[in-house]
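quick one, three chains, predict together pls
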Amino acid sequence: MDVSPILDPLNEAQRAAVTSEDVPALVIAGAGSGKTRVLVHRIAWLCEVHSVSPFSVLAVTFTNKAAAEMRARVESLLKHALGGMWIGTFHGISHRLLRAHWQEAGLKENFQILDSDDQLRLVKRIIQDMGLDDSRWPPKQARGYINARKEEGLRAGQLQHRNDPAARQLVRIYTAYEQECERTASVDFAELLLRSLELLQQNQEILDHYRRKFRHILVDEFQDTNAIQYAWLRTFAGEENPVFAVGDDDQSIYGWRGARIENLHNFERDYRNTQLFRLEQNYRSTNTILSVANALIDNNRERMGKKLWTEGVTGDPVCLYAAFNEQDEARFVAERIRQWVEAGHSRRDDIAVLYRSNAQSRVFEEVFISHSVPYRVYGGLRFFERAEIRDALAYLRLARNPDDDPSFERVVNVPSRGIGQRTMALVRERAVRNRVTLWKAAEEMLQSRSLTTRAAHALERFLQFMSTLEEEIRALVLDAQIDHILRSTGLMSHHGREGSEKAKSRVENLKELVVTARSFDLDNELYKEMLPADAFLVHAALEAGEGQGAIWEDCVQLMTLHAAKGLEFALVFIVGMEEGLFPSDMSKEEPGRLEEERRLCYVGITRAREQLVFTYAESRRRYGADSYYNSPSRFIGELPPELIAEVRPRAMVSTPVRTRSMPGRPGQNSGIGVGDSVVHAKFGRGVVLDCEGAGSNARVQVNFEREGSKWLVLAYANLDKLV
DNA sequence: ATAAAACGATTTTTT
DNA sequence: ATCGTTTTAT
C-alpha cells in the first residue's frame, strides 16, 4: 500500500492528527493551517490504509458548501466515488434519518420541511388565532424562543415557568405551534435535529444499528456546534465510536445564534482518552499579518491557546487609513484597488472588502460604480428564498400534496383571485375546529354552502384549478412541470405585466428556476426512492442556493466579516474600524460578546494572504444622522504599532465631497476660512484645511498639531481664530 | 382590492 | 435615511 499521496502533503502536526489512534481526537486547527486537508486525509487514511469501509464513515459539516467541498476533495484523493460514505450537514443527515425512519419518528411519510420564512408565517398565524396582540408578542421573538428551546433539546411539555407569566405565554405559543406542525406534518430546521435525536434515543434497535454502522465520525467547525448538535454527535458515537473533531476556538463567531464554544472545552472532559492536536503552522498569510492576528487575539482571556506561525515571507506592513467620512473611506479603498491592479495583480476577485454590517456595503457600491470598479456583494436573499421562487414551488408542493397548508396559505390568492382574508379566516377556523387541513375544510365549506356566493365561487375555482393542475403535470418531467405551473397559474404573466426592474428580475428568476430544475441531479443517492418533484423540493428547502446568479466578471468581493469565514484573498480591506461599529455597540452588554467581536476581527485579519488594510471614518452617517469624532476601534490599539503603516496622503486632504450636503459657502458667516489658524479647547492649536456646509451645518476640517486632522461642527466646536 | 401613509427597526446567518 | 410591514383610505 502506497501511503505517500495521503501522508506526503502533510506537515508533522497534520500527519499526527491524520494517523492518530482509534480514540477520540480533538484538532485545534488555526486559520489557514489545513483544517479541511486534515479531515479529508483522515478519511483517506482510514479507508485506504486501515481498510475501513466507506459505509462506516460519517462526516458532518455546517453548510452545504463545506459538505460539497469535502465530498469533492475526498473523491479526488481516493480517486473514486464515495461509495456509501455519509458526508453532509447536520440537517441533511438528520433529514435522511427521518426519511428512512419516518414511522418510528412519529412522522408522516410525506412530511414537509418548514424553512424560517414558513415558520414565521405559522407562528404569526398562531399568535393571531390565540387572540394575542402581536405587538406585545412579536412573532419573530416567539419563533426565536421556540428555536432556542428546541436547540437546547427542550419541548413545550418539558418547560415550566411558574413565576414568569411572559415565559408561560411563550410556552403556550410553543405548544400550539407543535400541534400545528403535527397537524400539517411539518418539520422546521431545529425539529430535524431534535426529532432525529429523539429517534435514536427512543429506539434502541435503530440506535444500535447506526452505532454499529458509523464506526468513524468526523466533525468540521466543531466550535460552531450548539447544544443539540453536540448531543446528537454524542448519541451517534456512544461509548464505542471515536469522534474526530476539528475546530478553532479563536474562530467561534456564532455564539449569538446558539453555538457553544464550551463544547470544545467539554470534549476532553466527556471523552476521557481524547488526543489533542494543534495545527499552528499557517500556509496562507505573511508573517506580518500573522503577528498582527496573534497580537490581537492575545487580548482574549478564554482561549485554549495557540500561536500561528509561518515559514513564509515577512510581507508588507499592515496599512491603516483614517478617512474623513464613509465616502472618503470608500474612495480610498477604490484608489488602493486601482493601484493594486496597476501593480500587476491580475485578479480582482482576489480582493475583498470586509465590513461588520451589511448596511456598510452601500457607500462602497456607489463609489465603486462611479470609479468603475467591478464588484460583487454577498448576502441578501438567496435564490430559493426569493418570494417569486417560493410562490412557484408552493404551487408544486400543493399540486403534489393538497394537504400542505403552508403552501395553500401562500398561493391561494397569488396572483389575486378574489379569495381575501375574510374568506381564509373562515376556512382556517373550520380547519382548526374540525382538525382537518385547509384543503379539506375548503371542500367542506363548499359542500355546506356556508360562504357567500362570490367567495364560494372563487374558492371553488381555485380548488378546481389545483386539481386540474395536478393532472396536467403528473406525466411531465420536472422542468416541464414547473414551466407549466408558471404559465397556468399566471405567475409569469403576473410579474411580466409590470415593467419595473424588480419585476424583470423576478421574471428572470422564474425562468432560471426552470433551468435549475432541468439540470437538477436526480441521481444523487440522497434522493433515491423519491419522486423528482419531491426531491427538488427537499433540495430547495435544505439548500437555499447562491445569493446571485453566475459570476460574469472578475469582481472585487464585498461581504460581512461573518460571511468571509473560510475564505481567503490576496488583498483584504477591513473597513469601518470604529468604536461602536466594530466592536458593535450592541455587543457591549454581555462580557463574552466583546471577545467574540475580537475573534471576528481575527477571522477578518487571517483572510489576507499578502496585504491587509484597515480603514475607519472620523465621521459617518448612521441611521440617517451623522456622528463625528468617531474614535478608531479598540482593536486597532491592540495591534503592534511597528507593524502598522498609517496612511495620510496629503494629496487626499483636499475636498471630501459630501453628495448630500448643501454646497454652502464655506465659513461664510463664521469668519473662519481655509488656511486660518485656530484654537480648540480640547484639541489645541491647528490649521483649517477645508470647510463645507453653511449655517448650523457648517463643518471645518482642522489639522491639529497634537491630534491630527479632524472634522468639527462649527456651531459646537467653539473655535477661536488666531490672528 | 389596491395604493398611500404611518410605523418601526436598524449586527452578524445557516439550515 | 431607508427599507419592509402594517394600517388606513379610496
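Residues 359, 362, 621-625, 660 of chain A lie near DNA strand C (CB under 10 Å from a C1').
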